[in-house]
Amino acid sequence: MAAVMMMGVTEVEIVVAHQERATLRVGEVFLKVDADPARTNVEMAAMALAPVPTPRVLWHNRLVLALAALPGSALGRLGQLSTASPRAWTAAGAALRQLHDAPLPPWPGRELEEIETNLDRQCHWLLDNDVLPVDLISRNHEIARVALREWTPAFIHGDLQSNHVFVDGDVVTGVIDWSEAAPGDALFDVATLTFGHEEHLTDVLTGYDSSVDLAVIRGWWSFRSLSAIQWLVEHGFDPFAPGCEVDVLKAQK
To answer: Where is the Aminoglycoside phosphotransferase domain (predicted)?
Structure first.
């Protein structure tokens, strides 16, 4: 994260930036710049349909979306212990249940065959480039395959990392970054929210108020790690940082 300050000028903060997207914060406004206008269109449509708090859209054009800042702070961040209370995690689980119970968005989600193919391709890349030990990849590939089964589609966020959920005390004030929203597996969202924060899975499930298959949750944890490492490496992020993707793979049994 970087920031620039000039005398008499509001701070401009680079929240995240890579070849595909960039997000800037200017005072109480977030500017999201996306090379693919289709993602911006999905984000706006999903926020309009979602039955949970979302940022207020200030304006947009083909490639830039301006959003009002949400009150509170992120529920958690990968690689860091969350300072949010267990009740805040439970509230996030309840908000997720509300989303999954909503009518499906009218655009298609990813097909299971596509997801399976992507997992196999990513595992081959990890092996071919000697990124991780063979046994670690093989074990997590098998764990991930448990999640790749038929499911009843739900309205999912699609990238519900803990830093995409904002809370103020024990109240969810908003959910951001909806460009991956689509019909999909509800447990993928549950797994993504608790990814790297296994200690809060019980809190989330208390609010989610529905029995889940924990083997599927763990499967999506392995899937998310295996399928993300190449992209992270190629875009200047470190999946080997403490508590991040590689550590999640090592913790899987």
So the answer is: 45-195
Q: Which of 243, 186, 171, 174 is nearest to 220 (CA)?
A: 186
Residue 204 within a domain: yes
Per-residue pLDDT at 123 exceeds 70: yes
Domain count, the chain: 1
Q: What is the largest CA-CA distance in the chain?
A: 57
Say yes or no to pLDDT of 6 above 60. Answer: no
Q: Contact at 8 Å (CB) between 177 and 159?
A: yes
Question: From CA 236, how far away is CA 241, in angstroms rounded?
Answer: 12
Residue range 227-251: mean pLDDT, rounded: 96
**What is the pLDDT of the chain when averaged over all its residues?**
94
Residue 244 lies in a domain: yes
Query: Residue 247 sits in which domain range?
Result: 70-251
Question: pTM of this prediction?
Answer: 0.93
Residue whose token pair is 């960039």: 22
CATH of the domain at 184: 3.90.1200.10
Does some domain include residue 34? no
**pLDDT on residue 8:** 52
Q: CB within 8 A of 141, min separation 6: which ones?
A: 119, 123, 222, 226
Q: Who has greater pLDDT, 13 or 215?
A: 215
Q: Is the pLDDT of residue 235 over 70?
A: yes
- H or E stretch including 245? helix 245-251
b vs e for 56-90, b when ≥16 Cβ sit within 10 Å of the residue's Cβ?
A: eeeebeeeebbbebbebebbbbbeeebebebebbb
Q: Are 160 and 78 in contact (CB under 8 A)?
A: no
